[in-house]
Specification:
binds iron/sulfur cluster, 63 residues
Length: 63
C-alpha cells in the first residue's frame, strides 16, 4: 500500500472477500490498512478495485 497515494475511498475494503482490510485514520486523512496479513490469499481483488494504483501487489505492501 502506498499510503501517500491512497485516498481512503474504501473500494479495496469492500472488494476483499477475506474482510481483512480496513480504513485507518491518520491525522486528518484515512488510508487502507491490512488487519491480518496471514489471511491474505493474494487474490488481487483489492489491487483491481483501486482506482489510484495505490496497492503494489496482491499481498499488500505498506510502502
Ligand atoms: S489480495 Fe489479500 S487483501 Fe487483497 S482482496 Fe485479496 S485477500 Fe484481500
Ligand atoms: S481502493 Fe486504493 S485509494 Fe481506495 S482505500 Fe483502497 S488503496 Fe486507498
Amino acid at each position: 500500500m502506498k499510503k501517500g497515494c491512497c485516498s481512503g475511498c474504501g473500494r479495496c475494503v469492500a472488494a476483499c472477500a477475506e474482510k481483512i482490510l480496513t480504513l485507518e485514520v491518520s491525522g486528518y486523512r484515512k488510508h487502507a490498512a491490512m488487519l491480518d496479513t496471514s489471511r491474505c490469499t493474494s487474490c488481487g481483488a483489492c489491487t483491481a478495485a483501486c482506482p489510484l494504483d495505490a496497492i503494489s501487489c496482491g499481498r499488500l505492501q505498506i510502502q
